[in-house]
Amino acid sequence: MESKVSRRLKEAIAPEVLEYMFLPRLNREFTNNFGHLTDINQAHLLMLHSVGLMPTNTSAALASALVQMEEEGMGAVPLDARREEAYFNYEARLMDIAGRDAGGRLHMARSRNDIGATVDRMRSRALALDVLDAMGAAAKAALDRAELFADVVMPGYTHMQAAQPITYGFYLSAVADALGRDMARLQQGLAGLDACPLGAGALAGTAFPIRREAVANWLGFSGVVQNALDAVASRDFAWELMSALTINAVTWSRVAQDFYIWSTPEFGLLEFPDRVASTSSIMPQKKNPAVLEHLKGKASHLIGLLTASLATVKGCNFTHTGDGSRESMRSFYEAAEESRRCLALFRLVLESVEPKPDAMARHARRNFSTATDLADALVREADLSFRDAHHVVGAVVRDALDHHVPADEITSAMIDHASLDQLGRAMHLSEATVRNCLDPVRNVAARMATGGPAPSVVRGRIEVQRQSLQTLLSDGESRRHRLTAARDTLKRDIRALAAKQA
Asked: What sequence ranges are listed for the domain Fumarate lyase N-terminal (predicted)?
């Protein structure tokens, strides 16, 4: 039995190739690519007819067949792995409906290479817009909660050690900023893929007088890939998008790690409702942060997918190859789907976690996170250099730790004792000044400089962030509207052509 797709091949495909290569790929790709293949075939047909390469009677018959296939759906197409892949199975069904001659004419002036490259861009575009929406939903949740908790004082941490007082709202506002940059990177990737490869052929274009720009317009692209070889050889748009997804995964993983630590009884700063937790099969007291562990693990998964995609391509020639085109894109599609699901979980986490204000305030009062303000007071009121003030307060903290004195019980006398030992003179700060410096609420409220955690500054910043987020989301919506309008035009024009059938 000969090949079902080429008279160049005189033997049937080996059973192992069918079972382990073509069949899994066909089952995976046909469902995902059917709609894109239909749009591509319709746009290509309209172009061939418009430039006179396809007579009206044949064009109308093909248009009618393509409309029928679209209405019947992918389930009406019998799949045969001996036809290798999605395109040949689609073409076989088209030839059954339109006839062998008419159905076989549609492949004029194109190749599976440029078709596949166009499918990849269309599918990637749709997935990236979905992920962009999911990122936006997570960023909105962060901002909503940031505004709600802008006054909730907590310790900020560096090196997992108490650093300076902040607010929980300030923390979430920072997360929203990071998500905004992740969204901007994804927007850049969307702009990078906004060129249509169709018409590039196998790698060297075509001698037929086609109009590539017309096809690009029907498919919602703003232009065409200018070099035919580059059009079929390159999938760097996917690596750019995947890099944005991976950086975003690192963002959510770092937040998940903070929440993971802060929700432990040892910290006791946050609490999750039971609906986002799991339990133990043996230990009845357990409430496990399963969603946080999932998010952290999936971030590693995305890093692996990006690495796998780049490693797949780095040894490929700069032209169309099966590994460079298919296997590298498979990693991207998986990464995009995982990102969309994880971002929905991340949004749920942001909306669900509840700060414990009393515990946060107690930690901030007693764990020396206010020490920097005490050093600042020595600079302002005792005319010390900051380095000397740093030494004095460091000695005070050491003394307090040695005597099990919490930060909010440090006294002016303790400061004088330390300053006499370090500098040979007392500072004579008033007790009121010491109390104010060691009050985390006053501490935070005083940090009014741009980017600071003062509640009024945070709320002002949130308003700016909301506007920026809306701009990012509006850009995504504009892209969606443009794609919808292009597709509506495509469907109208193909039905009009089908109506010309004799």
From this structure: 49-304
Q: What is the 3-state secondary structure (H, E, C) of 224-239?
A: ECCCHHHHHHCCHHHH
pTM of the predicted protein model: 0.92
The letter for the amino acid at 249 is A
Name the stretches of the chain with pLDDT < 70: 1-9, 502
Q: List the helix and strand counts (H, then E) for the chain.
A: 20, 4
Report pLDDT for 1: 53
Residues of the chain with CATH 1.20.200.10: 121-150+186-354
Written as six digits, the tokens of 454 are 């003062």
Q: Is 180 left (phi over 0), alpha (psi -120 to 50) or beta?
A: alpha
Work out the angle at residue 387's Cα, subtended by the Cα atoms of residues 383 and 388, and round it to the nearest 5 degrees. 55
Distance CA 474, CA 484 (A): 15
Question: Is 121-150+186-354 a CATH 1.20.200.10 domain?
Answer: yes
Conformational region of residue 424, where left means phi above 0, alpha means psi within -120 to 50, and beta covers everything else: left
Architecture field, domain 15-108: Orthogonal Bundle (1.10)
- Cα 158 from Cα 258, distance rounded (Å): 11
Q: Could you give the residue range(s) of every CATH 1.10.275.10 domain in the chain?
A: 15-108
Predicted local distance difference test score (pLDDT) of residue 16 = 87
For 370-410, the pLDDT digits (tens) are: 999 999 999 999 999 999 999 999 999 999 999 999 999 99
- CA–CA distance, 251 with 248 (Å, rounded to integer): 5
Query: Other C-beta atoms within 10 Å of 16: how many?
Result: 8
User: Which of 194, 128, 141, 35 has its CA nearest to residue 476?
Assistant: 128
Task: With both helix axes pointing from N to C terminus, report the angle between 86-98 and 56-72 in degrees, rounded to the nearest 10.
Answer: 120
Q: Which helix (H) or strand (E) covers residue 304, if one does?
A: helix 290-313
C-beta separation of 502 from 57 below 8 A: yes
Looking at residue 2, what is its pLDDT? 66
**What per-residue confidence (pLDDT) applies to 425?**
92
Q: Is the domain 371-438 a CATH 1.10.287 member?
A: no
Q: Which two tokens stand for residue 137?
A: 């939903």
CATH 1.10.40 in the chain, residues?
A: 371-438
Residue 265, SS3 per DSSP: coil
26: which DSSP letter?
H
The model's pLDDT over 131-173, given as tens digits with 9 standing for 90+, comes to: 999 999 999 999 999 999 999 999 999 999 999 999 999 999 9
Nearest of 277, 210, 245 to residue 48 by alpha carbon = 210
Task: Write down the pLDDT at residue 21.
Answer: 85
Contact predicate 183/244, CB 8 Å: no
Closest CA to 465 of 141, 167, 138, 177: 177
